[in-house]
Predict the structure.
Amino acid sequence: MKKVAILGSTGSIGVTSCDVIRKHRDDFCITLLSTNVNYKLLAEQANEFRPDCLYIGRKEFAEDLKGLLKYGPKIFSGPEGLVESVKNSDAKLLLNALIGAVGLLPTLEAIKLSMDVALANKETLVVGGELVTSMAKKKNVKITPVDSEHNAIFQCLKGNLERPLSRIILTASGGPLLGLPLDQFNDVSPKQALNHPTWGMGKKISIDSATMMNKGLEIIEARWLFDLPAEMIDVVIHPQSIVHGMAEFSDGSIISVLGPTSMSIPIIYSLYYPEHAPSAPVAMLDLAKGLNLEFFAPDEKRFPLLKTAKMAAKELGTVPTVLNASNEVAVQAFLDGKIKFTDIRLVVEGAISSHRSVKADDIKVLLEVDAWARKYAEEFISTRGR
Ligand code: MG
């Protein structure tokens, strides 16, 4: 039985992960569940799975959480408690489904403890890719991507590592604004931007899909996961979200992974890895129904942040850290109605152009740059806010 720690268990990926584990109770035992504020759902999950450790981000909810529990686990809270909870979890695998750069420190802690990592928190690699991958190599820790595109490409490359690769291709649905006329982007509301056509996801990633920053972050994530230069990582729009990722080899062959549009597949793959799941978590893809698969290039005029992120993937250093932190602040400000949809890019571009990149191999430096970019973005927004 594999002991699994789940960070971010009340979010979209976390809930799906609990659901997958619920159906495979003989193979997994959850030792840690966590949330930032949603203590009611955390208590429900905890009473069902009985992990020894719980983490609640906001200290003021710790007592409410305790009041709902039917047993007595160790409870960690506050920013400093996050890494502590991982340390105490005694897990073999950390499934990191946190949102944002806050996921970096617990990933590093897991690697330090020789815990394998199923990574749904792409910001871990966007912000600390160099540090994380070199440490994982040293500790012989397996990082399995839960992000659907990367999980697919991980599978495409498996068994083909000796074969000359020409490029990998990340597919993108194009998000809810794919067909919107350019002159209407100014007036996009949070509700409109949250309305994703194929994937049901959390708010942050849904807005990132609408700007296509999500795909930009995924380029940087892929750069570190597969140790490839940004020039070998392409993005293609595929509105049906059936082909999840592709690897093109120098002889012209493309290997791809197709599957239902469900995160439970990369989740079950990563939970069982390097073993294999005994069954599919959702209904199989029905090819006989007739699939219409379209592919076309993204329009960078419509999605300027994709271009900015590609540039960050080439430059590296601390540029991706600034890109990510300023974007996190800008997305929240857009959701709070403080800035327009088209201001998100201005915040990010402003932060990047005001930053002098340095080497990104020291956690202290990364945290400082992350904090600087957040402050820059907040000030930018407060002077610009409508
Ligand atoms: Mg993805």
Summary: The chain has three domains: 2-145, 147-261+286-306, 317-386. The longest helix spans residues 363-384. The mean pLDDT is 95.
